[in-house]
Amino acid sequence: MGQQKDENLSRREFISRLLKCGISITASGGICYWLYDEIGPQAGGKIREVVTIPDFSMPGTDERVMSIIKGKERVAAVRKAIDLLGGIERFVKPGERILIKPNVAFATPAKIGATTNPDLVAEVVKLCYNRGGAKEVIVTDNPINDPASCFNLSGIGKAASEAGANVMLPKDYYFKLTTLDAGTLIQEWPVLFEPLSTINKVIGIAPVKNHHRSGASMSMKNWYGLLGGRRNIFHQDIHTIITELAMMLKPTLVILDGIEVMMSNGPTGGSLTDLQRKNKLIASCDQVAADSYGASLLGLKVSDLPYLIKAEKAGVGTTDYNSLKPLVGEVTG
Amino acid sequence: MHFPQGRNKVIETGISFFLLSVILFIAIGVFFKQFRYEAGHFISDSMVVSTADITENNAELADLSNILSAEFKAMNTTETYDPNSLYEKINGKADLYLVSGFVHLTCQRFVNKANDKLWWELFVYDMGSPKNAFAVFGAQRRYEAKPLDWTRFSYSTKNAVFLARGRYYIEAVAADESEHLLTSIVAAIKHFIEQRAIKEEQIEELAYFPDRYLIPHSINLIVANVFGFSELRNTFTARYELDGEALTAFISKQANRQTASSIFEKYYSFLIANGGEDKTDGDFSIPAKVVDFYGSTEIVFTNGEYIAGVHEADSEQSAKKLTILLNDNLSKAGR
After folding, report:
1. How far is B43 from chain A (nearest CA, A)?
2. Is ipTM beyond 0.85?
């Protein structure tokens, strides 16, 4: 009977088989479509959401934009620098969450000046809490080297924690894609967004350093530590990426440490002889102005650092820091 | 329509089920694997410290802790970096090494067992050749530093030791200033060199620079774009002080006389094209081109397969004096 059935396929049997075949093909196609990943794998895990980084700069017309302090001692200098601008209370309101972005790029000792001085970070954290009434102060960076080693060996992790800060080491899920509309390099690029997503103000704290590639690493270059992914590709167009970083991150305040300046062999340095005492510390609401002054500490002109010119043209700030009538002070000790 | 019968049908059905099972197995494998991809296979995550393959040449560097004295211990395992990952360690300075032929970096941190503030990090850069190692050594030289007395291209500062030996450029950076720590570091590096029998190799060109008027420890190797001229590469420079004037001598070995002659002509043309004024005269004993370049004197000549000359001299007289000494040295060496 079965043999006869196989040899003489009935219409019902034929349609039934055809239907099954069609369902199989449709199901296979459907599963493939369901599983199809049109973006493809990305570094840092699930970071496909494209985010916009808020503007953290201070609104208003306060003429106190920049201060320059002469002094040997960082803690006293930063207090004075911020006080001249109206005190931390002008920038930090009670109950606010503050993000402090130091330069923690390398797992190197604080003394060689390749990273932000830990005492400086601790003092700003304390000011935010004690005088500004901040609810939370976050200290974060995405270092070049292993983050835990960098925060540990630079002394920044310990100093910030002891001052009460929440030290956030980067994790995969902290990164989200962002695009700078007016930019060409920062296009759907992963940035350290999670710490930025819950805060009200951003304070950058960076040392003045010679930089083999860009000429100088200061406030604007410090935002490089917010990038994720294979960011070294940007070294091919270093002046543009620094400009775009400054366009991307509009800080509330930047603090530029020129007390001891890495005059050569940057950004890593290594020898204490790479450092030279300049005894200057700058606080500024205008990061371009701060870096323009910082350039002079390295013996450079504004024209030696194309990213300053580009940033000025992009409306980020002014290279003519004197036009801001910087408030000048001095601390002893 | 013909359908298989009996035993054939069973076999074909079996094969079909087998093939479908294989396809299903692969599909399940792909399905689960795609959720566990390794990011490093697609794009390097900057937060992951790279552990690049250790090449055969660098296998001996895999563990550096055996160079330590009993009072120190390793803080971490060795980290290794290749040309693709070097930026993860030194970021913006990676280019300096990459253009100089960088092959591999091994580094490790060590700490004093009794005092955890006394720690230091050793960086061993395999630069592929003694010349390459010398190039990065010279480019980062701290002139005020003190040379070590047991190896030629070396110096120490208050917290660090730097040296080029064989194909290696070695840095050791201490967390603090400590005479004792620095002494321990130098001993460890010495041990490292002895263990691996890294010899101090001679670099031919260095012998051609006249000793007279030479500023000690001022010889460097520029690997690319020398004096802004892209075709002049791998050029040794040395700083001189002559009759109260500072000037630079240079020597660059080319593949042969013809190449040397060709690049010599192009370099001369480059100087003229960029505003230089020819000051060559027949009285000078060496067939060299003399160019006034915005107030400073440039001299360039060839000697065999070498291009040599003087760069940025304050006066033509000093430049010619040094050129004669340089040419004599090259000639004595049989060039």
Report:
1. 6
2. no
